[in-house]
Design brief:
The complex is a heterodimer of chains A (525) and B (187). Chain A is α/β, with parallel strands linked by helices and 525 residues long. Chain A has four helices and 32 strands. Chain A has three domains: 139 residues, no CATH class; 84 residues, no CATH class; 179 residues, no CATH class.
């Protein structure tokens, strides 16, 4: 249609009208679009920043574990902190590692603690900061650890129950009784099972009896679940080898404190500070010990009585309530009083670090433990700790599992021995609340039961973990039902608190555990 | 008799037709305009709801992400077994302050949603202090622990919306996201 004259105006009006309407629509879109785009963009940034910051933390953990496993300090030289950096895609991360004051080599502790700060940035702008605190793990994290295992030793699935992490530097062989898969008990292994070596079987474990897989090696989940709480996935062979310590030199040093002189005369010595005035360390017992009794005094303070021949020394740490010394003078809380064999006593300011280190054998160890404590002997000289009776703890009723880590006890020796006077009844069992480490790297140290072949059967109920270089035989079990015919059976109840709250100076492994993790700064808009 | 000269202009029929066309066009355009206005207000309302849902998730995330197991055998985060209807709750452990890495202790925290009040609350960082309100006017908050280190959060928010006809109806926005707690911290 051809418009002429003044009729052309209608087209203009219509065009303007349409333009106005379209403008409204465009404005509405323009206002909504950036909001959506900003939200989507922010989500993408947040996710990428999270992953970049996490990369930094993971790199730092791997770096620390690698250095420690090679016997090197993660922070080069004597530095208190160390910076690492890297990139993932366009993102950069920078990690600052900081050792806490007690971490060696600057500090005197045996357990390393590092703070990891990771900062993720893009084009020079910091987007996310996280902080993780990692602490070195100790052998106390295991319910069961063994360095070597003879191939002829078998674990009868009906007679054993491991309710925490199990690790073997060799490989394991299980005996499956005939009707095992039709029974309904708790699985034999409740926690993860790791072995360094493997048998040539579908899962690396040797089975005497019906295996939990079919003829083609396909796992049968319902059978696996009878043996392992986590099923097939909770058994892993080819794990990294974890070496036992070769000596207990670090413990000797920690017991000695900063004193320049190493105690050498028989008797009980307190770790002193550099000026030999205050208490800084634990107890060093020179010579063989005939009996060592841990106890809680009437006032709630913890004590240890050490008998060496005709000499008896008693050390009371005033942990709870002030007492008076034999002269009637007050001994305030936070002090330690030593009653010497000659009838005299000394009072020291401060408490021990919880370590009792013996240069000789310690026999007759028993009693009630209060506070964190480790009893150790010279492992390089193949010294032993022998039990004298039950070892219980003040914070836990006998026969119950500990609910915390306040009174955790550790035993560290070349051999831990159960003499014929201990644990030779099935009911009641002998209760031992401790993380026990027995044996050095590549040795035959372990937990030994005296005269197990000939004596009446007995039972030890261990609340804690057992870490051994070598697992000797302890008992003769009936092949039908796993009931002991003679010797001692070990009924272990894993105490997970020992992993998070280990006994003092308990030997460490190369793994680190993240104890806390948090964002340091909010993510940006 | 001569006919008067023809003046430029439109006949009555032409005017009526063009008026009718213009009226029709006007009606159509008015409808487009009203619809676009309604779409705009719906859109801004939805964006506001989305922002509210996102803010809620952002308030929960940094809290849940610091969950850490007290021991190897306990979970860092879990759903309590028995809960009153129309509520959801997640319980998680965090380091207790002051924190000593050589003798660590942990405490339990929780996040609770009650549909009757629309409130999302959490217990205070220190014992004995009043619970904190993390979000209000939430229609539903699902806190579902999927694995030892992941939690699915479902936020449903609603707002009244007036449509073209002047009727009010509820507009709903549902946001679902899964929070991953670093696996190395929870193993």
């Amino acid at each position: 249609m051809k418009l002429t004259g003044s009729r052309r105006g209608t087209a203009l009006i219509l065009a303007i009208f349409f333009l106005v309407i379209l403008n409204f629509l465009a404005m509405a879109l323009l206002e909504l679009l950036p909001l959506e785009m900003r939200a989507a963009g922010r989500n993408r940034l947040e996710t990428a920043a999270f992953l970049a910051a996490d990369s930094g933390v993971l790199h730092a953990l791997a770096f620390i574990e690698d250095r420690v496993s090679r016997g090197e300090t993660p922070l080069p030289g004597d530095a208190a902190s160390h910076v690492l950096s890297g990139e993932t895609g366009n993102w950069n991360w920078e990690v600052t590692l900081q050792a806490d004051p007690e971490t060696p080599p600057r500090g005197t502790g045996t357990v390393r603690v590092y703070e990891i700060h990771s900062l993720a940035s893009l084009d020079g702008i910091a987007y996310r900061a996280v902080r993780a605190l990692a602490r070195q793990e100790t052998f106390a994290r295991y319910a069961w650890f063994e360095d070597q295992r003879r191939d002829d030793l078998v674990i009868t699935t009906t007679a054993w129950h491991f309710d925490g992490p199990f690790h073997s530097n060799s490989r394991i062989r299980l005996q499956i009784p005939n009707d095992f898969y039709s029974r309904d008990p708790s699985p034999t292994f409740e926690g993860e099972v790791t072995t360094v070596e493997a048998y040539d079987t579908p899962d690396g474990v040797a089975y005497m009896g019906t295996p939990p897989y079919d003829a083609q090696g396909n796992p049968l989940p319902e059978r696996y679940l009878k043996i392992f709480r986590g099923g097939r996935e909770s058994v892993r062979t080819g794990a990294r080898r974890i070496e036992l310590p070769s000596d207990s030199g670090a413990l000797a040093q920690a017991a000695k404190g900063q004193s320049p002189i190493t105690p050498s005369t028989p008797g009980v010595h307190l770790g002193q500070d550099a000026s030999s005035e205050g208490l800084a360390g634990g107890l060093t017992v020179v010579g063989d010990v005939d009996s060592m009794v841990l106890a809680v005094e009437e006032e709630g303070n913890r004590s240890v009585t050490i008998k060496q021949g005709s000499s008896t020394t008693k050390v009371v740490e005033v942990t709870d309530q002030a007492i008076t010394d034999p002269d009637g003078n007050p001994v305030p809380r936070g002090s330690t009083i030593v009653y010497k064999p000659d009838g005299t006593f000394t009072v020291h300011s401060g408490l021990t670090n919880g370590l009792i280190y013996g240069t000789g054998n310690i026999r007759g160890l028993q009693g009630v433990n209060k506070g964190k404590r480790t009893v150790a002997v010279d492992m390089a000289s193949r010294k032993e700790i022998s039990l004298g009776g039950p070892l219980t703890r003040a914070d836990t009723p006998v026969g119950q599992a500990p609910q915390g880590g306040r009174d955790s006890l550790g035993l560290v020796a070349y051999n831990v021995r159960v003499p014929t006077s201990v644990a030779r009844t099935l009911n009641p069992p002998t209760d031992v609340y401790a993380a026990i480490l027995a044996g050095t790297k590549n040795s035959e140290g372990g937990l030994y039961i005296d005269s197990w072949q000939t004596r009446t059967p007995g039972r030890i109920r261990l609340y804690g973990g057992l870490m051994m270089a070598y697992k000797p035989a302890w008992a003769n079990l009936s092949v039908f039902d796993g009931v002991p015919l003679n010797g001692v059976t070990m009924e272990s109840v894993y105490d997970p608190n020992l992993a998070s709250s280990p006994p003092p100076f308990f030997p460490t492994i190369g793994k680190f555990r993240v104890l806390r993790y948090q964002e340091e700064a909010p993510s940006v808009d | 008799m001569t006919r008067p000269p023809r003046r430029p202009g439109m006949t009555l029929v032409e005017v009526m037709i063009s008026t009718a066309i213009l009226a029709l066009l006007g009606i159509v355009l008015a409808q487009i305009y009203v619809a676009s206005q309604a779409a705009y207000s719906t859109g801004t309302g939805r964006v506001a709801l989305q922002q509210k849902a996102r803010r809620t998730v952002q308030r929960l995330t940094p809290r849940l992400i610091q969950a850490i197991p007290a021991t190897d055998t306990r979970n860092a985060i879990y759903n309590p077994e028995a809960l009153p209807p129309m509520t959801s709750k997640v319980v998680y452990t965090v380091p207790a302050e002051p924190f000593d890495p050589r003798s660590p202790s942990y405490r339990e925290k929780w996040i609770l949603f009650e549909q009757s009040t629309g409130l999302v609350t959490t217990n205070a960082d220190e014992e004995g202090q009043a619970d904190l309100v993390l979000a209000r006017d939430i229609h539903w908050l699902g806190l579902e622990v999927l694995s030892p280190n992941s939690v699915r959060i479902t936020v449903v928010v609603q707002a009244p919306l007036r449509d073209v006809g002047g009727n009010t109806r509820d507009q709903e926005y549902r946001l679902q996201t899964t929070i991953l707690i670093p696996y190395y911290a929870t193993r």
